[in-house]
Amino acid sequence: MNNNLEKKFEEIRARFPHTEKIVYFNAASNGPFSLDVKNTIEENMKVRMAAEIDDTPTGFESAEELRAAYAGLIGASKNDIGLGLNTSFGLNVVAFGLPLPPGSEILVSDIEFPSIVYAWRAAAERFGYKLKFVKSKDLIFDIDEFQKAITPNSRVLCLSYVQFFNGYKNDLATLSKICKENNLLFAVDGIQGMGTEPVDVKELGIDVFTSGCQKWMLSPQGCSFFYLDPAVRERMTVPFMSWLSVDWQMNFTSLFKYDNPYFDAVRKYELGYYVVLNLVGMKAAVKYFQQLGIKNIREHNHRLLDRLAAYLKSNPYYRITSSMVEKHRSSILTFTCDRYKELFGEITKSKIILAQREGSIRVSAHLYNNAADIDKLIEVLDRFSKQV
Ligand SMILES: Cc1ncc(COP(=O)(O)O)c(C=O)c1O
User: Fold this and answer.
1) How confident is the model over 24-47, as pLDDT tens digits?
2) What is the second-level CATH architecture of the domain 3-32+293-387?
3) Distance separating alpha carbons of residues 375 and 18, to the nearest angstrom
4) Ligand 1 atom at shortest distance from the alpha carbon of 164
5) 192 alpha carbon to ligand 1 midpoint, in Å?
6) How remote is the CA of residue 303 from the centroid of ligand 1, in Å?
7) Measured in angstroms, how far is the CA atom of residue 152 from the centroid of ligand 1?
8) pLDDT digits 0-9 by tens, 222-252
9) CB of 212 closer than 6 angstroms to any ligand 1 atom
């Protein structure tokens, strides 16, 4: 990484006040706010308290800017992007909007984050689909088991890009190819990889991609975006509808028109007016990803985790539980030891914030972290392993 880029990372780190008080390795749960996010939200609050108050255009303009920004980050076009409230929003749009015959099989992993399972479970109950769990192997989604599970009734594979509990990055290219060969729609819950692991929906042949922005995208809670491939959009019915599913040409003076055509764009699945405070916050946050580039963020994060992994490998007390195979790595690294719960307490006491998941300690490294943060964690790990 060249000096200019390193400097940019340092400058952006300085925009995150928490870095002066704590070490934060928990973006996989919730991302921190930067000063820029806080400032834009405060600006919007001030407008709503001042003479103008009615800032309706801000919502529309911000939404349009954000659709274009997220499209740019995942190789899509802005008409293929909609804004929602969370990852589940996009999952439900497709689960309830895609018309499938009764008896259709929806394939999901048996170690999946519940948002995928519950969205499809509800659709299965409503439309008579069958939710089919693909057997994992060593806590990893197994491609052979996936292929064995496919039958002529299989219609959808819905899977996380990166698994929340061990950071395993699924091989989207191979999975997408298998989906195409078997006529399955490929829907991806991208939240644990969005912003840290590059994704090009066109190149990868992803049909649906949905991601909350409250974690790695460093945005307010309760906001997300989703992508639908145009061919999928053509197949879809509208699962629900709002007055903003249609084009008013920004003229809201005569509203007794009930036969406006839908937008020919994914925004037709958005529900009503926007959470503008969130949109302005998202706009401030998305700029970091545009400025740094997701490939560079990945390199930065992986380099930090390499430093930690080297230590963990050198100390027999610890065992890495994430895959270290390059193509399956993400910005999440997990490890464990005999007394990991006690260790977790020690780490927290040292003002280092991370998470415990499924018997491991989960470290999420992100663009505001640096090598000194990793060294602080290593110091605690070293002390702990010498005490026990
Ligand atoms: C893989 C995955 N999907 C979804 C979510 C959250 O779903 P939502 O944004 O709908 O709350 C999480 C974490 O909270 C997650 O790890």
Assistant:
1) 999 999 999 999 999 999 999 999
2) Alpha-Beta Complex (3.90)
3) 17
4) 16
5) 8
6) 25
7) 30
8) 999 999 999 999 999 999 999 999 999 999 9
9) yes
The listed CATH number (1.10.1270.20, 3.40.640.10, 3.10.250.10, 3.20.20.70) that belongs to domain 40-291 = 3.40.640.10
Residue 55: the pLDDT is 83
Cβ–Cβ under 8 Å, residues 90 and 160: no
Coil, helix or strand at residue 224: strand
The confidence score (pLDDT) of residue 283 equals 98
Q: What is the SS3 assignment for 185?
A: strand
Evaluate: CB of 294 within 6 angstroms of ligand 1.
no
What's the pLDDT tens digit per position in 172-210?
Answer: 999 999 999 999 999 999 999 999 999 999 999 999 999
CA of 29 to the centre of ligand 1 (A): 9
Q: Ligand 1 atom 16: the closest Cα is on which residue?
A: 164
pLDDT digits (tens, 9 = 90+) for 132-167: 999 999 999 999 999 999 999 999 999 999 999 999
**Token pair recorded at residue 216:** 């790695």
Distance 191 CA to ligand 1 centre (A): 6
- Boundaries of every domain in the chain: 3-32+293-387, 40-291
Q: What is the mean pLDDT of residues 96-106?
A: 98
Tell me whether residue 317 is exposed, middle or buried, using C-beta atoms within 10 angstroms of its C-beta: 0 to 12, 13 to 18, 19 or more.
middle
Task: Tell me the per-residue pLDDT of 317-343, one tens digit each, with 9 for 90 and over.
Answer: 999 999 999 999 999 999 999 999 999
Atom 2 of ligand 1, nearest CA residue:
113
Nearest atom (ligand 1) to Cα of 224: 9
Please compute, for residue 271, the number of CA atoms within 13 A of its CA located in the half-sphere on the CB side. 11
Mean of pLDDT values over 250-273: 94
8 Å CB contact between 335 and 320: yes
* 109 touches ligand 1 (CB under 6 Å): no
What is the CA(224)–ligand 1 centre distance, in A? Answer: 10
Structure tokens at 339: 């007394």
Same fold, 3-32+293-387 and 40-291: no
Beta carbon of 115 within 6 Å of any ligand 1 atom: yes
Q: Is 21 helix (H, G, I), strand (E, B) or coil?
A: coil
